[in-house]
Specification:
This protein is about 60% helix and about 0% strand. It is mainly α and about 110 residues long.
Length: about 110
């Protein structure tokens, strides 16, 4: 699995350059791969970075992010639901309403 190790290293090295959509897709992808412990480490890094970004689309800052469910699912799969709550609390403080539709439950 040297390829996955190399990819994981590149993700962690460059995560500060990722858009919010990139972070959501990266967290979901690595949670799906499930290669421990690196998958959990990447999900933690993505959620931590997402907390510091506004929950809006990179393409249209007037639209709230529609990929919040990726962070919730990734945190749950890696047994870290606290990460999802941290992200949602940070985004709620910036005006995003976190409801079932936001996290992909409807």
């Amino acid at each position: 699995e040297p390829l996955l190790d190399a990819l994981a290293e590149a993700v962690l090295r460059n995560i500060r350059l990722f858009s919010i959509e990139d972070l959501a897709k990266t967290a979901w992808s690595w949670a799906t791969i499930g290669k421990e412990p690196i998958s959990a480490e990447i999900v933690v890094a993505c959620c931590s970075r997402a907390r510091s970004l506004p929950p809006v689309s990179s393409w249209d800052s007037s639209e709230f992010l529609d990929t919040a469910h990726a962070f919730a699912w990734s945190a749950w799969v890696t047994a870290r639901p606290d990460l999802a709550w941290d992200v949602f609390r940070a985004w709620a403080s910036q005006g995003m309403i976190v409801d079932a539709a936001t996290v992909g439950l409807l």
